[in-house]
Amino acid sequence: MKQASMIINVVLAVALAVLYYLHFSSKNSTATPEANATGVLGDLRIAYINADSVLTHYEYYKVNRDKLEAKSKKLDADLNSRAQGLQREITSYQNTAGSLTRGQAMALEEDLTKKQQNLRVYQERLAQELAIEENKFNKELYDRITAYLKEYGSQNGIQAVLKFDLTSDLLYAGDAIDITKDVIVGLNESYNQGDTQVSDSTKVK
Asked: Could you tell me the strand order of the sheet in which 40-41 lies?
């Protein structure tokens, strides 16, 4: 699920670019706006979230991540069982090859080769199936978070939400503009309500 953190990175990268643009372009004006404790830079009001905390506490992510991991383990177990069964057939053939006629040996080798090929095709199909499901999950995660942040920003007058952690380009942000807890609470409320009342959970309480 490492891609999940990347999803939030993508969600927030555009906001950071906007902040940089406004900051550096403002140097060409006669009066340079400064960021204050309320997270305002000129006409841009900003906030930030801790992406790791959001993923750790977001129920939608936890539930669907667990389902995906459980399915992956189940498919791995099935694949390993098939591989072990084929290996037993190969071992049996090797142990009895000396007593087989040339025709029997060739027939068994052809059969085992075909089974090996089928197993590889099955393995590739499983990998593709899991990749599709994970991409679908990450897309929905992206859509849910972006939709919530847009609604939250609209309700609270915030134009940009940044990600703040060890991998981000944001080196410092004060607690006054940290909306992580609000976002976690709001996302979970929306998820538990079936995402039908998003706007009710976006207002700062």
From this structure: 40-41, 44-49, 160-163
Q: Is the pTM of this model over 0.85?
A: no
Rounded to whole angstroms, the Cα distance separating 59 from 140 reads 14
* CB-based burial label for 112 (10 Å; 0-12, 13-18, 19+): middle
Q: CATH number for the 2-201 domain, one of 3.40.1190.20, 3.30.910.20, 1.10.3720.10, 3.40.50.10070?
A: 3.30.910.20
Using left for φ > 0, alpha for ψ between -120 and 50, and beta otherwise, residue 191 falls in alpha
Name which of 143, 140, 148, 138 is nearest 47 in CA terms. 148
| Residue ranges covered by each domain of the chain | 2-201
Specify the residue for token string 């976690």. 184
Alpha carbons within 13 A on the beta-carbon side of 152: 28
pLDDT digits (tens, 9 = 90+) for 112-157: 999 999 999 999 999 999 999 999 999 999 899 999 999 999 999 9
